[in-house]
Amino acid sequence: MNVFLIVVLVVIALLLAVAVFIVYRSFKLREWELRLKAKAEMRIATMKMVTPLKIQACERFLLFLERSQLPVLVKRVYVPGTERDAFHIALLRNVEDEFEHNMAQQLYVSSDTWQAVQQAKEELVGQINATFDKTEVDTDVAMIAQALVALPNPFVEQAVALLKKEFNEI
Questions:
Q1: Domain ranges of the chain
Q2: What is the tens place of the pLDDT at every residue in 13-25?
Protein backbone atom coordinates (compact mmCIF):
# COMPACT_ATOMS: atom_id res chain seq x y z
CA MET A 1 0.00 0.00 0.00
CA ASN A 2 2.91 2.23 0.66
CA VAL A 3 3.95 1.95 -2.98
CA PHE A 4 0.44 2.78 -4.11
CA LEU A 5 0.43 5.89 -1.96
CA ILE A 6 3.79 6.98 -3.35
CA VAL A 7 2.57 6.47 -6.92
CA VAL A 8 -0.57 8.50 -6.21
CA LEU A 9 1.50 11.28 -4.65
CA VAL A 10 3.88 11.30 -7.62
CA VAL A 11 0.93 11.46 -10.03
CA ILE A 12 -0.63 14.29 -8.03
CA ALA A 13 2.72 16.09 -7.95
CA LEU A 14 3.07 15.68 -11.74
CA LEU A 15 -0.49 16.90 -12.29
CA LEU A 16 0.20 19.91 -10.06
CA ALA A 17 3.44 20.62 -11.95
CA VAL A 18 1.60 20.42 -15.28
CA ALA A 19 -1.15 22.69 -13.95
CA VAL A 20 1.39 25.22 -12.67
CA PHE A 21 3.20 25.09 -16.02
CA ILE A 22 -0.06 25.64 -17.93
CA VAL A 23 -1.02 28.59 -15.71
CA TYR A 24 2.48 30.06 -16.06
CA ARG A 25 2.39 29.73 -19.86
CA SER A 26 -1.09 31.27 -19.94
CA PHE A 27 0.13 34.30 -18.00
CA LYS A 28 3.17 34.62 -20.27
CA LEU A 29 0.99 34.33 -23.36
CA ARG A 30 -1.38 36.97 -22.01
CA GLU A 31 1.57 39.25 -21.19
CA TRP A 32 2.91 38.79 -24.72
CA GLU A 33 -0.52 39.58 -26.22
CA LEU A 34 -0.78 42.74 -24.09
CA ARG A 35 2.66 43.87 -25.25
CA LEU A 36 1.73 43.32 -28.87
CA LYS A 37 -1.52 45.21 -28.39
CA ALA A 38 0.32 48.09 -26.69
CA LYS A 39 2.85 48.23 -29.54
CA ALA A 40 0.07 48.24 -32.12
CA GLU A 41 -1.77 51.01 -30.28
CA MET A 42 1.46 53.01 -30.04
CA ARG A 43 2.09 52.53 -33.76
CA ILE A 44 -1.44 53.71 -34.55
CA ALA A 45 -1.05 56.75 -32.30
CA THR A 46 2.30 57.56 -33.92
CA MET A 47 0.81 57.24 -37.39
CA LYS A 48 -2.04 59.57 -36.42
CA MET A 49 0.55 62.17 -35.40
CA VAL A 50 3.06 61.61 -38.22
CA THR A 51 0.70 61.27 -41.18
CA PRO A 52 -0.41 64.92 -41.12
CA LEU A 53 3.25 65.95 -40.87
CA LYS A 54 4.12 63.79 -43.88
CA ILE A 55 1.27 65.34 -45.85
CA GLN A 56 2.41 68.82 -44.85
CA ALA A 57 5.99 68.02 -45.89
CA CYS A 58 4.82 66.87 -49.31
CA GLU A 59 2.70 70.01 -49.68
CA ARG A 60 5.54 72.31 -48.64
CA PHE A 61 8.10 70.67 -50.92
CA LEU A 62 5.63 70.77 -53.79
CA LEU A 63 5.06 74.45 -53.12
CA PHE A 64 8.83 75.02 -53.02
CA LEU A 65 9.26 73.25 -56.36
CA GLU A 66 6.38 75.12 -57.97
CA ARG A 67 7.68 78.47 -56.71
CA SER A 68 11.17 77.57 -57.90
CA GLN A 69 10.24 76.86 -61.49
CA LEU A 70 12.01 79.48 -63.54
CA PRO A 71 8.94 81.15 -65.08
CA VAL A 72 7.36 81.56 -61.63
CA LEU A 73 10.61 82.56 -59.96
CA VAL A 74 11.52 85.15 -62.60
CA LYS A 75 8.02 86.62 -62.53
CA ARG A 76 8.20 86.97 -58.76
CA VAL A 77 11.74 88.40 -58.60
CA TYR A 78 12.14 90.45 -61.77
CA VAL A 79 11.55 94.17 -61.51
CA PRO A 80 12.18 96.30 -64.62
CA GLY A 81 15.26 98.42 -64.18
CA THR A 82 16.96 95.98 -61.81
CA GLU A 83 20.71 95.72 -62.27
CA ARG A 84 22.13 92.47 -63.62
CA ASP A 85 24.03 91.47 -60.45
CA ALA A 86 21.14 92.43 -58.18
CA PHE A 87 18.78 90.28 -60.27
CA HIS A 88 21.20 87.37 -60.17
CA ILE A 89 21.61 87.61 -56.40
CA ALA A 90 17.87 88.04 -55.87
CA LEU A 91 17.12 84.88 -57.84
CA LEU A 92 19.69 82.81 -55.94
CA ARG A 93 18.69 84.22 -52.57
CA ASN A 94 15.04 83.53 -53.27
CA VAL A 95 15.75 79.88 -54.11
CA GLU A 96 18.03 79.43 -51.08
CA ASP A 97 15.57 81.11 -48.71
CA GLU A 98 12.67 78.98 -49.93
CA PHE A 99 14.79 75.84 -49.67
CA GLU A 100 16.10 76.60 -46.19
CA HIS A 101 12.60 77.47 -45.02
CA ASN A 102 11.46 73.95 -45.89
CA MET A 103 14.62 71.99 -45.05
CA ALA A 104 13.27 70.46 -41.84
CA GLN A 105 10.52 68.76 -43.84
CA GLN A 106 13.09 66.20 -45.00
CA LEU A 107 12.34 64.29 -41.80
CA TYR A 108 8.94 63.31 -43.16
CA VAL A 109 9.77 62.22 -46.71
CA SER A 110 11.83 59.34 -48.05
CA SER A 111 15.51 59.84 -48.72
CA ASP A 112 14.87 59.42 -52.47
CA THR A 113 12.32 62.22 -52.44
CA TRP A 114 14.60 64.46 -50.37
CA GLN A 115 17.48 63.83 -52.77
CA ALA A 116 15.23 64.64 -55.73
CA VAL A 117 14.21 67.96 -54.11
CA GLN A 118 17.87 68.78 -53.40
CA GLN A 119 18.88 67.85 -56.93
CA ALA A 120 16.11 70.01 -58.39
CA LYS A 121 17.29 72.95 -56.30
CA GLU A 122 20.95 72.43 -57.27
CA GLU A 123 20.04 72.11 -60.95
CA LEU A 124 17.99 75.29 -60.72
CA VAL A 125 20.89 77.19 -59.13
CA GLY A 126 23.19 75.77 -61.80
CA GLN A 127 20.87 76.91 -64.58
CA ILE A 128 20.65 80.40 -63.14
CA ASN A 129 24.42 80.69 -62.75
CA ALA A 130 25.08 79.22 -66.20
CA THR A 131 22.66 81.67 -67.83
CA PHE A 132 24.35 84.63 -66.16
CA ASP A 133 27.80 83.24 -67.03
CA LYS A 134 26.85 82.90 -70.71
CA THR A 135 25.58 86.45 -71.07
CA GLU A 136 27.68 89.56 -71.44
CA VAL A 137 27.93 91.97 -68.53
CA ASP A 138 25.98 94.62 -70.44
CA THR A 139 23.13 92.28 -71.48
CA ASP A 140 19.72 93.71 -70.70
CA VAL A 141 18.21 92.08 -67.61
CA ALA A 142 14.92 91.60 -69.47
CA MET A 143 16.74 89.44 -72.02
CA ILE A 144 18.29 87.36 -69.24
CA ALA A 145 14.86 86.98 -67.66
CA GLN A 146 13.45 85.75 -70.97
CA ALA A 147 16.32 83.28 -71.38
CA LEU A 148 15.70 81.91 -67.89
CA VAL A 149 11.96 81.54 -68.44
CA ALA A 150 12.61 79.48 -71.58
CA LEU A 151 14.79 76.90 -69.78
CA PRO A 152 13.26 73.50 -68.96
CA ASN A 153 14.00 71.90 -65.62
CA PRO A 154 13.33 68.17 -65.78
CA PHE A 155 14.71 67.72 -62.26
CA VAL A 156 11.83 69.77 -60.87
CA GLU A 157 9.37 67.62 -62.80
CA GLN A 158 11.03 64.43 -61.49
CA ALA A 159 10.92 65.70 -57.90
CA VAL A 160 7.25 66.66 -58.28
CA ALA A 161 6.49 63.17 -59.61
CA LEU A 162 8.26 61.56 -56.64
CA LEU A 163 6.42 63.80 -54.19
CA LYS A 164 3.08 62.89 -55.72
CA LYS A 165 3.97 59.20 -55.58
CA GLU A 166 5.01 59.46 -51.95
CA PHE A 167 1.87 61.42 -51.10
CA ASN A 168 -0.32 58.72 -52.68
CA GLU A 169 1.45 56.07 -50.57
CA ILE A 170 0.65 57.84 -47.28
A1: 49-169
A2: 888 888 889 999 9
